[in-house]
Amino acid sequence: xxxxxxxxxxxxxxxxxxxxxxxxxxxxxxxxxxxxxxxxxxxxxxxxxxxxxxxxxxxxxxxxxxxxxxxxxxxxxxxxxxxxxxxxxxxxxxxxxxxxxxxxxxxxxxxxxxxxxxxxxxxxxxxxxxxxxxxxxxxxxxxxxxxxxxxxxxxxxxxxxxxxxxxxxxxxxxxxxxxxxxxxxxxxxxxxxxxxxxxxxxxxxxxxxxxxxxxxxxxxxxxxxxxxxxxxxxxxxxxxxxxxxxxxxxxxxxxxxxxxxxxxxxxxxxxxxxxxxxxxxxxxxxxxxxxxxxxxxxxxxxxxxxxxxx
Length: 310
Ligand SMILES: Cc1cc2nc3c(=O)[nH]c(=O)nc-3n(C[C@H](O)[C@H](O)[C@H](O)COP(=O)(O)O)c2cc1C
Ligand SMILES: Nc1ncnc2c1ncn2[C@@H]1O[C@H](COP(=O)(O)OP(=O)(O)OP(=O)(O)O)[C@@H](O)[C@H]1O
Description:
- Helix 5 crosses helix 6 and helix 7 runs antiparallel to helix 8.
- The protein is an alpha/beta fold.
- It has two domains: about 150 residues, 3-Layer(aba) Sandwich (Rossmann fold), CATH 3.40.50; about 130 residues, Riboflavin kinase-like (Elongation Factor Tu (Ef-tu), domain 3), CATH 2.40.30.30.
- Strands 1-4-3-2-5-6 form a six-stranded parallel sheet, sandwiched between helices. Strands 7-8-11-10-9-12 form a six-stranded antiparallel beta barrel.
- The site of flavin mononucleotide has 23 residues, from strand 10, strand 11 and helix 9.
- Belongs to the ribF family.
């Protein structure tokens, strides 16, 4: 897959199938749109996901930049979905002020030689968000491309959207988040040294400092599976600031159930499965250890049941 910040100019004969939007999370609704676009590979179209490298909302309304996926994660997931080109167009003032018609002419027609465009019915773009599927269809007639307005995928009660996923994540509804995404919510980072107090209570942990832009469920304890190198481990993770020992940054700290290796310096992907309890301040590490024993027993049972089902 080609990942680029600039809208590329395709070769003279090359045509593209394009979809546009923010694509935070690459949830099941996004995946449906990408599947429609991929149908056009049969007609030799290059598949293009056109997105922005800063959420337009962040730039326009200074909303916090916490996202479900970092740019790198979104890139990797798009590649796994079989996308040929992912454009993360910088949301500059020039792009922000571009009229919808100009955006279509300059980027989609002139550069990408668009042949097919897939968008959701509520898709808006261009200066003052004046561009919509109707305008795209009119321009499609003029510039010889087809527009498919893809019906929104729902979970039976509500349309799936990044906003919906973020709301459920904020509530700690991990199973729901995973169902909307179509994969397990995850975070990644390098395993770094903590204060090494964990091992003094018989609970050595893998600490990672996640990207600052990554959105997290509420501080608390979660049942997780971690992928480290080629291996996967069941475990239990704390997300938060460890009030008992007072950490000053948000960390993800995991006790891996069946692991006694030295993991420092390795990259880990921690996948969330289930919310167990909120993070709490304990009077002592020993008291915390008592709670951890209860948490671990629940975690081991959860994964034993899960593996039995699979
Ligand atoms: C599963 C799990 C649950 C935890 N729960 C809490 C908690 O509720 N409150 C808290 O202050 N720290 C919690 N911690 C963090 C501990 O305070 C931490 O593991 C211990 O202080 C060792 O930290 P260190 O790795 O920096 O040495 C939890 C850690 C794990 C692995
Ligand atoms: N549930 C869905 N089914 C099909 N297409 C969708 C779905 N959700 C979004 N899309 C389409 O995917 C493209 C990218 O969507 P985008 O990420 O901008 O919206 P979103 O997921 O609804 O996010 P937000 O909640 O931030 O508005 C748009 O064309 C949008 O209409």
